[in-house]
Amino acid sequence: MAKIKTKWICLNCGYETTGYLGKCPDCGEWGSLTEEKLQKNDNKKGLTVNINFKSEPQLLKNIEIDDAMRFSTGLSEFDRVLGGGLVRGSLVLIGGDPGIGKSTLVLQSSGNIAKKGIKVLYASAEESARQIKLRANRLNVDSENLYIYAETNLDEIQTNINNIKPDVVIIDSIQAVYNSGLTSSPGSVSQVRECCNILMNIAKTCGITVIVVGHVTKDGMIAGPKVLEHMVDTVLYFEGERYKSYRLIRTIKNRFGSTNDVGVFNMEDDGLVEVTNPSELFLAERCESITPGSVVIATSEGTRPLLVEIQALVGPTSYASPRRVATGIEYNRVLQILAVLEKRVGLNLSKHDVYINVVGGINIQEPAADLGVALAVATCARNVIVDPETVIIGEIGLSGEIRSVRQLELRINEAAKLGFKKAIVPKASLPLKNSPKEIKIIGVSRLIEAIASSIPVKEMQNEF
Predict the structure, then answer these.
(1) Smallest Cα–Cα separation from 281: which of 293, 266, 296?
(2) Which of 114, 232, 369, 411 has a CA 20 to 30 Å removed from the CA of 337?
């Protein structure tokens, strides 16, 4: 019996080698190489989609672009992260945790698209047609142009693409379909890469928009080699807290738009509902009787400003070394802010536990939240209250200076819409061209100035 040849493939980057290596030479990951068979199945060859036109080199100035290149999904928040809608002939990859609502999102979108007279083929490799019908009834999705096909064999899916000739194809999910030309099991590196390559050829040669749903690993990354994300045109992550009703969709890669936008949805019984004012959502449960350590900051997700509440809790420690806990903000960033408070403001926290929480479960990445974190900690430590009608914006440097932030006008306008009367901002960003008159803007250049400006005069204490 002939020996079966195998190869080792890195799950992270797709690097191939003939023998096992503990560390991938290409990406440096440990234990990421998996073994797969090299032999191919010659009994059945993969089908190809008919190509109705011949591609030829064209001069750049002769290439015409019309408005029909994009079409809406019927969900404005989804269109926002796509850059204005789906592009014909594009390949979109959507990843997210199990049960987060990926199938709900694509089914709602496909129903909206089909109502416009655009043919949609929804190929589900994980659910039966009856299961999808039950979900469609709950979401009120029904159209004569929406085809449901429960199949795991990509060759059969290609055959139906030839027969139906849809404008949009949805694959749910890429890890569950397989190509019969390979002997490896569905979900393996070879199958995922080969199936994605076939779908990419379908999208580019036939002008069909393909949306692919992908599983994620325990680290939150899309399962399969990293080359999968390089092959597609757009990579979206659908995320949200397990015990919260809202969902966020972020753009990681987009060849046809910005990679900084975020869409906000609220998961309800009848599906995903768009949230046009997410700041109001995140501040909806803010207590009327504000306690020390609570401040509101204006962060930015791409071109969208968001107002969120940051809470801090400071208390004496019972341990040899005090605890530092950060939820929703980078831990090392919090340690840096606490160090600046101790050195530049004189606030001794060496014998106090510090807990930081971004209310609502949102994760803040940008440094414009630094000043809000510092004021929350400082006011909680001294048991004073920040003016509840004040919004805080600014980045803190190691010398205690307040640095400028981008899109300051958008943040202030968002705060004015929600009724805030005062904004503490970096002095380096002033003056502003167009600022609302109903909000008082205070520019600060040092951290100690910001603390003094945020606390009402009657509550000022000698510690500051």
Answers:
(1) 266
(2) 411
d(CA 350, CA 342): 9
Which among 269, 266, 305 has a CA at the least distance from the CA of 410? 305
Please tell me the distance from the alpha carbon of residue 266 to that of residue 249, in angstroms, as a whole number.
11
**The tokens of 265 are what?**
């949805």
Q: Which helix (H) or strand (E) holds 139?
A: helix 129-139
One domain for residues 430 and 316? yes
Q: Are 362 and 310 spatial neighbours (Cβ–Cβ below 8 Å)?
A: no
Q: How far is the C-alpha of 17 from the C-alpha of 441, rounded, in Å?
A: 60
- Token look-up 């900051």 returns 297
The total number of structural domains that make up the chain: 3
Structural domain containing residue 165:
68-275
Q: The tokens of 449 are what?
A: 């100035």
d(Cα 445, Cα 450) in Å, to the nearest integer?
Answer: 8
| Amino acid found at 301 | E
Whole-model pTM over 0.85: no
Residue 323 sits in the same domain as residue 184: no
Take residue 338 and report the two structure tokens written for it.
């606490």
CATH number of residue 79's parent domain: 3.40.50.300
**Token pair of 379, please?**
């006011």
Length of the chain: 464
CB 368 within 8 A of CB 385: no
Residue after which a domain boundary falls, among 245, 275, 305 = 275
d(CA 115, CA 189): 36
Verify that 267 and 331 share a domain, yes or no. Answer: no
**One domain, residues 305 and 380:** yes
- How does pLDDT run across 383-434, given as a tens digit for each residue? 999 988 899 999 999 999 999 998 899 899 999 988 899 999 999 988 888 8
On whether both 260 and 296 belong to a single domain, the answer is no
